[in-house]
Amino acid sequence: MTSRSASLMLCGVLVACVAPPREPVRPTEQRARWEAQVASADRRADEVMHSVAIGGAGGTGPATEAPLDSAGSDGVGLVNYVPSVRVGNIVALNAARRPFAEYLNRMHKRFHPLFADSFLFSLDHLPPSDPLNDQHLATELEIVLDEHSGRVARLGVTTPSGNDTFDAGVLQAVRRAAPFGAPPPEIVSPDGKVYVHWVFHRNEQTCSTFNARPFLLRPDPGSAVVERPVENVGTQK
């Protein structure tokens, strides 16, 4: 090896050693990527629903999509969503159980035609081998509504199904079904919001209220609390 070659190799090693680290992704750039992913999955869900003939399907429900208010959101609804409900900030339902059960039925009547009768019906026309026909798909959402009209204040995926298109279809159904009407005061948390976690299935469980878990939040989320199990109050199976 010539002295010139050795010098070039040494320079290359030095350059590699002193090269600055790759600049981390900025929060604004990361959010733009999240939003692009959400938009792409949302379009895919629309394509699935509109590329299949749905003649003869049951009522399609409300067609107007309620805008998603991102104020106070810690992430985009489809990915990296940070739930408002967490260990340490909930209290027992007590007298709110019955009003919650009635309101969950009202919500279910609004989005069942959009999710089960429209979105899931469209998936039935896809080939059996299509990933969207995996009967194990299930998506859990956190649904946060305002106290005045039942408008969606926050909405996000707390447990993804593993299929972005399915998750987007679930989000679409709930967003388009809103608003759900003014909730009874007993189920409104001190911050003026209604909190529900709801699991949507690809199989025969679909969007039954049996898979809904309502919550009441504490006035001060940071205060200590002894946790009690939160039971489902849904009536449908």
Short summary of the structure?
This protein has 237 residues and is an alpha+beta fold.
Secondary-structure blueprint:
Blueprint (H helix, E strand, L loop, with lengths): L2 H16 L8 H24 L39 E2 L5 H27 L14 E9 L5 E8 L4 H14 L15 E9 L10 E6 L20
Antiparallel strand pairs: 1-5, 2-3, 2-4, 4-5
Please give a structural write-up.
There is one protein chain. By secondary structure, this protein is an alpha+beta fold. The protein has one domain. It is 34% helix and 14% strand. The protein has 4 helices and 5 strands, in the order H-H-E-H-E-E-H-E-E. It has helices at 3-18, 27-50, 97-123, 164-177; strands at 90-91, 138-146, 152-159, 193-201, 212-217. A 5-stranded antiparallel beta sheet has the order 1-5-4-2-3, covered by helices on one side. A hairpin with a 5-residue loop joins strand 2 and strand 3. The chain is globular and about 50 Å long. The relative contact order is 0.18. The model is unreliable at 8-25, 49-76 and 221-231 (pLDDT under 50).
Structural class determined from secondary elements: alpha+beta
Give the CA-based shape: globular
- Largest β sheet strand count, sense and barrel closure: 5 strands, antiparallel
Strand content: 5-15%
Mean pLDDT: 76
- Strand tally is 5
Number of structurally distinct domains: 1
| Assembly state (oligomeric) | single chain
Q: If strands are numbered along the chain, what order do they take across the biggest sheet?
A: 1-5-4-2-3
What's the SSE pattern? HHEHEEHEE
Distance between the termini: 78 Å
* Rg value: 23 Å
Helical content stands at: 25-40%
DSSP helical segment count: 4
Low-confidence parts lasting 5 or more residues at pLDDT below 50?
Answer: 8-25, 49-76, 221-231
